[in-house]
Write a structure and sequence with these properties.
Radius of gyration: 22 Å
Order of helices and strands: HEEEEEEEEHEEEEEEEEEEEEHH
Oligomer: single chain
Strand content: 35-45%
Number of helices: 4
Largest sheet: 10 strands, antiparallel
């Protein structure tokens, strides 16, 4: 192995941080030396969805300025950077580490996008704004834009998607009795990435989630059954987006700032076709054709009519 290859392969394993649940080797950066002495950096990922990668160059020689070392990866095999030699007769010298995180950095999204409630049409639920658990239990500071809801039902019920998207993460590990617990970190979770780069995180399913990673879901698609905690059946929901790739700010958990921004969603209910929910109030789901078909393709709408 030549000296160039050795330096390129001196890498640190990337670390992903979403909802404090890291998965080993979700994304790996590979390198290739081309015949023209350029070096191509390619991202290979196992999980669906978009990631943001930050490179930290330890050595970089015989190549032009690479600019801001932050890159978006949507597909496995995406070429994120090609280093071209300044002197074509010499090799590029490079050594780096990298970190990555789920989500597209600062995506363009509509703050007033209309979401469905996370239960079937006509279902009556109680919406409660949730506190920031890290502040409640671990002394962290609540983000300025924090917004999350807990949707309670009288009995166990089916949780449905609030918007079209791709299921990018499923954690279906826990089957413990949580009826009498006020809080537990052992919750089954689904993350759905929307077309505009926002992420919906649903937490609190019974074991046996209905959907799989990579699956496309639509408003009203059944995701799983809600679980019981503190003697109440419910599901937690928050809509977020990646607003920072400053991984170094998270060294002290109590002082760290969230890398994700939180969106206050507008919901379609029988009381209000387009409004922000009031905490502790009961609402009934109004799953209208407009909400269901808003982001569907013509083919998807046509297939919907066949069901």
């Amino acid at each position: 192995m030549n000296k160039l290859s050795k330096s390129i392969l001196t890498l640190a394993i990337g670390i992903t941080a979403f909802a404090a649940q890291a998965q080993e080797k979700e994304l790996v950066i590979s390198t290739k030396r081309n015949n023209d002495k350029s070096v191509a950096l390619t991202a290979e990922k196992a999980a669906p969805g978009t990631y943001t990668v930050v490179l930290n160059f330890r050595e970089l020689s015989n190549t032009s300025n690479v600019g801001e070392p932050i890159y978006r990866v949507r597909n496995s095999g995406d070429n994120i950077l090609t280093l071209t030699p300044t002197n074509p007769n010499q090799s590029v010298g490079v050594s780096y580490s990298y970190s990555y995180i789920r989500g597209e950095l600062n995506p363009k999204y509509n703050k007033e996008f209309l979401y469905a409630l996370p239960y079937a049409k006509g279902k009556k639920v109680r919406a409660v704004e949730s506190g920031f658990l890290n502040a409640t239990y671990f002394g962290s500071t609540t983000p300025d834009d924090w917004k999350a809801y807990r949707f309670y039902t009288e009995d166990a019920d089916t949780v449905t998607a609030v918007r079209k998207g791709i299921v990018v993460s499923v954690s279906d590990l826990y089957d413990e009795d949580t009826k009498d617990l006020k809080y537990t970190s052992k919750v089954n979770t689904i993350v759905v990435e929307h077309a505009d780069g926002t992420l919906a995180t649903y937490r609190g399913f019974k074991k046996g989630i209905f959907v799989k990673e990579g699956q496309t879901v639509f408003p009203g698609t059944a995701l799983g059954m809600n679980n019981i905690t503190n003697e109440r059946y419910g599901i937690s929901l928050m809509i977020t987006y990646l607003k920072s790739a400053n991984f170094g700010s998270n060294k002290n958990p109590k002082e760290s700032k969230s890398l994700y921004g939180f969106i206050t969603p507008y919901f379609c209910t029988t009381d209000n076709a387009n409004g922000i929910l009031t905490s502790q109030k009961y609402y009934s789901s109004a799953l209208t054709p407009e909400v269901i078909q808003k982001e569907m393709t013509k083919k998807e709408i046509k297939n919907l009519g066949k069901k």
